[in-house]
Amino acid sequence: MSPVTRSGLRMPRSPGTLLALIAAFALAAVALAVVLQYGFDMQPCAWCSFQRVLFIAVALAALLARALQRVRPAHLAAVALTVLLAAGGVWAALHHPLVAAPAESCVYTFADRFLIRSGLDWYLPWLFEARASCAEANAPLLGLPFAAWSAALFLILGAMALAALRTGPRN
After folding, report:
1. Is 124 a domain residue?
2. Burial 59-95 (b: 16+ CB within 10 A, else e)
3. Helices H, strands E: what count in the chain?
4. In a domain, 127, yes or no
């Protein structure tokens, strides 16, 4: 049975469960972004695509941490990596509306260079190709800019990873 927090939500006791949830939420965010892109014509900018990369990286790090639960140092390193990637996601999500969108152009920023040099926009254009400017991609979703939703989810994923550290294996 999971302990109940003040808000009435149950927090899983198992770090493995938390890490699996982190991966599921991160991948669901990418799936939602793809649905919004192709179903509702919300085209991504380079910073949006870079956030997709970070959500996938968070998911992979969380799954790695889950797989390494029996090897405490490796598990802790993978969970710490998950936290750092989530923090990077918060930075990328906030950079988009606060720095990139107000700029005259968001062409060839760090996000563009990363996508180009990694080849992700070439090999998986349906997922990572930037198809809008940062100002165009700063659209609201249910009244809040998409980047705000992204930053909030990265914060939640980071907090969940920290909770997994606290409830981690004790060997």
Report:
1. yes
2. bbbbbbbbebbeeeeebbebbebbbebbbbbbebbbb
3. 7, 2
4. yes
**Domain extent for 68:** 15-166
Give the whole-angstrom CA distance, residue 11 versus residue 17: 10
What pLDDT score was predicted for residue 2? 46
Crossing angle of helices 46-67 and 72-95, in 10° steps, is 170
- Rounded average pLDDT per 10-residue block, the chain, 171 residues: 51 82 98 94 90 98 96 94 97 85 68 90 90 73 82 97 76 46
pTM of the model: 0.86
Q: At what angle do helices 15-40 and 46-67 cross, to 10 degrees?
A: 150
According to the model, what pLDDT value does residue 95 have? 87
Whole-number Å distance between alpha carbons of 152 and 56: 16
| Residue 8 forms part of a structural domain | no
Tokens of 159: 């907090």
At 1 the pLDDT is 40
Closest CA to 81 of 54, 99, 52, 121: 54
**Measured between alpha carbons, how far is 76 from 79 in angstroms, rounded to an integer?**
5
CATH number at residue 57: 1.20.1550.10
At 49 the pLDDT is 94
Report how far residue 153's alpha carbon sits from residue 28's, in angstroms, rounded to the nearest whole number: 11
Are 171 and 70 in contact by the 8 Å Cβ rule? The answer is yes
The answer as to whether 5 is a domain residue is no
